[in-house]
Design brief:
The chain is mainly beta and 107 residues long. Helix content is 0%, strand content 58%. 12% of the residues are buried.
Length: 107
């Protein structure tokens, strides 16, 4: 008789938002999101694919937060959000949320 024992670690990392996929703004924007998953999670907030406007570290298993996106120049922008956590030396990344945002000073 041979016994084989496996250890399986399941990691769930979920990032959601009720935010509209496209909208128009004239000032700072409060972006609401919910993050679920064990351990410390770093949330990355990116504008136009290359400018990280901020990060937040969340340790709660299930947390709803609001991140303030600073007012941008008039025109279309892409806002992206993703979360990362590390377990056993491996970085796990959530799906990326991508939203279209239009800023205008004429509102």
């Amino acid at each position: 008789t041979k016994t084989i024992i496996y250890t399986v670690t399941v990691i769930a990392l979920t990032l959601t938002t009720p935010f509209a996929e496209m909208n128009t703004y004239s000032g700072d924007v409060g972006f609401q999101y919910t993050i679920t998953g064990n351990g410390a999670k770093v949330i990355h907030f990116i504008l136009d694919d290359d400018y990280e406007v901020g990060t937040e570290t969340i340790t709660a298993v299930n947390a709803t937060r609001t991140f303030t996106i600073p007012k941008q120049t008039d025109g279309a922008h892409i806002f992206s959000v993703y979360a990362e956590t590390e377990t056993e030396g491996t970085t796990i990344r959530s799906e990326e949320l991508r939203l279209g945002m239009m800023w205008t000073s004429r509102m």
